[in-house]
Model the fold of this input.
Amino acid sequence: MDTTTNLESNVETTAPATSTAQGRTYLSVLDLTPEALEACLTLAARLKRERRLGADAPTARALAGHSLALLFDKPSLRTRTGFEIAMRELGGLVTCPPSADALGTRETLADVARTLERWVSVAAIRTFEQSRLVEFVQATTQLRVVNALTNEEHPCQALADCLTVRERCGSIRGRTLAYVGDGNNVATSLTHAAMMLGMHLRLASPEGYELPDATVTAARQMARHGAEISQGRDPVTAVRGADAVYADVWTSMGQETEATDRRAAFEGFRITRELLAHANDDVFFMHCLPAHRGEEVDAEVIDGPHSAVFDQAENRLHTQKALLLMLLGAA
Ligand code: CP
Ligand code: NVA
Done:
């Protein structure tokens, strides 16, 4: 198995709590240097252009001899299927052990990691606590490990989001994105990426559902190219003059028992046509999907001319391909 990688890392300085293995993990956007993040987006854009070449694409056999294990503790369409197609289109193999076998109580996570390490090059894991990913990584020395969503972060989503902003705006630096809703996993990874790439971020969340203070403080410290982050309670203030407006579900996977309380708390944080009217004229609406029409976003917004949500969904594939190539030193 190839053990080289050109994925650089700044985990020592910015994310010691979540990341453990320089260069072979993507547990957090913070596992990339800003330069590696930019390079990943540039590579993804190239892969997107070259996809029409099919089997004649320069990368069609790039990961031949490599296998990817998908270990998912929670449902997924985009992340899971995106990784499957990505790996196959790069010439590699995919295996999907049932989550009860790989992430359940049958054996320790460390033993699962040590077994898989003998067979596969990469594991993409969707689970609950981020600490489970760290535990998995610590048990291996070779395996590349990707966070396919945890309660705390969703770094693969942030790659597709940034590629979408870059496509729509021509560049990311200096743009303003308003995130209205829960300060959750998607918001956290988006914050990391925005600060690293120089995009201003304005968050509006109800009391008690904000991005953690520590995340905002760390974001300010890592901000580049003058990127600013603000957090408040008023969606109109956040959206005013924004280039993009982002929403995610009010109740994330694993929080289903809180759904009623959350619906009450988030009323007033729905993305409506009236709210969007406060943004720039050419504003676009973003959502990681799956979405709940009539809850966090009105149907006429997500299904309307300003919606970029299926560009984001498509870009999951291209960015996950780029990530796999970088992690395996084949970029
Ligand atoms: N946005 C996203 O991660 O979608 P899935 O949950 O379908 O993978
Ligand atoms: N915040 C959502 C994102 C789903 C892609 C969740 O964790 O369920």
Observations:
- The longest helix spans residues 309-327.
- The chain has a mean pLDDT of 93.
- The chain has two domains: 25-153+315-327, 156-313.
